[in-house]
# Entry
Amino acid sequence: MPTLKKFSITGAAGNLEGVAHLPDVVPRAIVVVAHPLPTMGGTMDNKVVTTLAKTFVELDFVSLRFNFRGVGASDGEFDSGNGEIEDVLAVVRYAQQEYGDLPLILSGFSFGGYVQARVAQHLHPHPHRLVLIAPAVGRSVPAFENSTGMPPVRHDTLLVHGELDEVVPLADVLQWARPLHLPIVVLPEAEHFFHGRLAQLKQIVLHAFNGQPL
# Structure
């Protein structure tokens, strides 16, 4: 059975708290999962985030979720997705020190997806893969007024969005993805928080990685 390990590390804004989901076998990869908008109550205990973390550990990946600065016991304050990049990078460094030089996957839901797309630009080598669930594509969300827009991502990014997303309209995501020729997995009638669709979301992620070499 997977085990949970709480961790506390020092980031650029102070303490960051998190939880690592550890497989019961030698891990094949490291995944860092980022949560939705802190100013709207987003935390590492969000149900989409925890679903992702549990799904990744079923794939024998070490899966880490954490609270951004200013959330829970993490120090600091919200920084419109800018300082949050530093938070992710701190968790990535910790994970690599703890679990070794494994393939790195970045995943995020909503605001967390926006942050992870930007983090990918700061990592060299780039992460093995991105998994973005209903990513907040920048300025369509009021809290992003001091941030940059959603950057381009690699073609093999797994992007899942709900048809009826009431927070980040599907039309906005299509407008961003279109010039990138980026495929989108659209869940018909699904809303932003995937109410009643978490099992389906899990299966999409499992299918994307099962049997795939890392």
In short: The chain has one domain: 3-209. DSSP finds five helices and eight strands in the chain. The first strand starts at residue 3 and ends at 11. The mean pLDDT is 93.
